[in-house]
Amino acid sequence: MLRTRPFLRTTEFLWQEGHTAHASAEEAKAETLQMVEVYAELAESFGAIPVVKGEKTAGERFAGAQITYTIEAMMRDAKALQAGTSHYMGENFARAFGISFNDADNVQAFAHTTSWGLSTRFIGALIMAHGDDRGLVLPPKLAPVQVVIVPIAKRNDEAGKAKVASEVARLEGLLAAQGVRVTVDKREELSPGFKFNEWELKGVPLRLELGPRDLEEGVALLFSRLGGDKEKLPLSEIPARIPGALEDFQTALLGRARAFREAHSLRVDDYETFKEKAEGHWLYVNHCGGADCEAAIQEDTKTTPRCIPFEGPAADGPCLRCGEASAYARRVIFAKAY
Fold it and tell me: pTM of the full predicted structure?
């Protein structure tokens, strides 16, 4: 039975998960870092979701881990979503479960282990990072259908329908030959407007509309799910233009999400301002790292420390709440989260 947030947390959900065992801490830590980079590459290059890579504070680490790395993504309501994690376990789990080996000196030693995973929560991230009031907006690299072609013709105009169908089939073949995931909506019982709305709801990046008048003019109408504008595109140019249009869509989608995150991120140096800005922002703050301080901040504002970013503003003052020295080299991101 589903709970209230499908794709984020349900009674059962699917994981991509990996575990490795290494002879040394250095090897295991390198693996842990490598996997958080892999997840960040997936999110940004394929999902068009900009993420902040960083380390969790001690209070937010995975139970039993010595280090937890995360990728944090901002959703369209400015809340943070932990979109993937990678953990260095040290020898903790190896000692608990008897994972040992004979080292180079033929001495029995416990392995240094890692654990890393990405779940169906990432689908939720795609929905919430890009969707709007009209439905999904899917990045072309992950969209099951990248282009939908909608033929338009009067039901009683058999000759017109045949001409349009012939050109649509030609375009479909040319696009498919280039590796474009294209489909044709041939459902005659539905109006063009109904089809347009349905494909927008499903988040298909590009739509081509072609009717008898367009055919006479030698053009098709190109609609972008991201911009919402229609452009007349010469039929002769469609095979060459569509792959580039999909790349532009992917780039623009990532850029839009990155700009939104930047517009909703602030450096804050005093606690009163922090409490005022906690809704709708990611807050970069100096933080002592204390569990009691984190608990008090959460009680006051419902925010939690999302990560100590690998890249970001350096810590340059005392903890904004308690005044103790900052425990980290960089400012810590606090935000409300899913």
Answer: 0.92
